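We now fix the convention by which a protein and its fold are recorded. Think of the row as the fold of the chain written in a discrete alphabet. Here is one such record, which you should read through line by line.
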Amino acid sequence: MRALIQRVSEAAVRVDGATIGQIGPGLLILICAMQGDTEAEADRLAAKIAKLRIFKDEAGKMNRSVRDSGGAALVVSQFTLAADTSRGNRPGFSTAAAPENGRRLYGYFAERMRAEGLEVATGEFGADMAVSLVNDGPVTIWFDTDA
């Protein structure tokens, strides 16, 4: 699985003009299931992200996790994280999981984040979404379970 996380002071996702998910301080998690991914990758990734110490402590150092800081997560599916830009000017997405598997793993990942003790809001798999955020820091980190 691939994920791009951003530490945010707030984030929201809208579909057809209606807000379907929003959080205050926490993480915006853009997530993409890749071909061959299973629940094991989602488990590892959720555990890693929930424990990642990128929130400031009392001394201003990045020493607290989203869980420690009482933050939430907004999980948004984004198959374009699978983009292959190695040839030409049009990215290819053939390494992304098939839509049925991608949808299943997206939902499973969101549930795993909840199991890690986080409040979780989500986007809508396959929808044309408008995502807004206020990046805090900015702090942006890339994950790839194959790397």
Summary: The CA atoms of residues 13 and 69 lie 22 Å apart. The chain has a mean pLDDT of 97.
